[in-house]
Amino acid sequence: MTTQLTRDAEELKALPRAGRRAVVMTMGALHEGHATLVREARRLAGPEGQVVVTVFVNPLQFGAGEDLDRYPRTLDADLALAGRAGADAVFAPSVDEVYPGGEPQVRITAGPMGERLEGASRPGHFDGVLTVVAKLLHLSAPDVALFGQKDAQQLALIRRMVRDLNFPVEVVGVPTVREDDGLALSSRNRYLSGADRATALELSRALRAGAAAADGGAAAVRGSARGILEAAAKLEPPVLLDYLALVDPSDFTEVPDDYAGEAVLAVAAKVGTTRLIDNVPLQLGAER
Ligand code: PAF
């Protein structure tokens, strides 16, 4: 199948459509995790429908001192991977194409959920994410949009935006793809040296230990995961923990010790010069 590359919003809007359209939004530097999203998009769109992959490194969601300039840009490889996974079209616009009026004056505000965890560490990040997701939804007009559960807070906020602002789209979350040794796939993994990567494995190890302690309740989950991260803080290079949180997936507030129901154990840490996030969904106590 040939995958059409378009950089132009009008051209994207003019793509012929039949059946269902599924969109996978990315910032490029595609890996097997993205390929899984595209394959699932293909399945949901069906042979008659279309799969559109967007590739856009969105300046609005990067803070000062973050990795906007060094974020990997690998469009040729992205196009090939998207095509192999079943995409019909790749929309890779320039910054001017997405923000023709310069920095947008009017933006989506992520609200309180957007100020917790990732939002506390990266002020304004989720406003930038939701603003571009809203724009890309308008431009690509999909029936279904797929996002990875690796960015669990982002996924929860997109679901919330779609519900609160009546976007006519179904949002589908796709489970995190991991290397055999547990490392969650991420475009930022390419920044890791061999030693960084060995240390980075402690994040998924901590999450697995936390999940394995779920029968003991929230305190046991936090304690198990924290124990591994405390030991990992003494490695070389160390895990420099930003947060470890056990949260309610509907609003990303910390759950109490007697909590029963679905939860997300989330971690963010710096290893070497790279900031990594990971999470695992789990069930605590009796189902509510
Ligand atoms: O998850 C990402 O890659 C980005 O945050 C997204 C959703 C493409 C918006 O820029």
Automatic annotation (TrEMBL):
Which annotated residues bind (R)-pantoate?
Q61, Q154
- Which gene specifies this protein's sequence? panC
A GO molecular-function term, please? Answer: ATP binding
Subunit structure of this chain's protein: Homodimer.
Q: Which family does it belong to?
A: Belongs to the pantothenate synthetase family.
Task: State where beta-alanine binds.
Answer: Q61
Q: Name one GO cellular component term.
A: cytosol
What residues form the catalytic site here? H34 (proton donor)
Its biological purpose = Catalyzes the condensation of pantoate with beta-alanine in an ATP-dependent reaction via a pantoyl-adenylate intermediate.
Please state what the protein is called. Answer: Pantothenate synthetase
PANTHER family per the UniProt record, alphabetical: CYTIDYLATE KINASE/PANTOATE-BETA-ALANINE LIGASE (PTHR21299), PANTOATE--BETA-ALANINE LIGASE (PTHR21299:SF1)
According to UniProt, this protein's pathway is: Cofactor biosynthesis; (R)-pantothenate biosynthesis; (R)-pantothenate from (R)-pantoate and beta-alanine: step 1/1
Additional information: The reaction proceeds by a bi uni uni bi ping pong mechanism.
Keyword entries, A-Z: ATP-binding, Cytoplasm, Ligase, Nucleotide-binding, Pantothenate biosynthesis
Quickly give the catalysed reaction.
Answer: (R)-pantoate + beta-alanine + ATP = (R)-pantothenate + AMP + diphosphate + H(+)
Q: Where in the cell is it found?
A: Cytoplasm
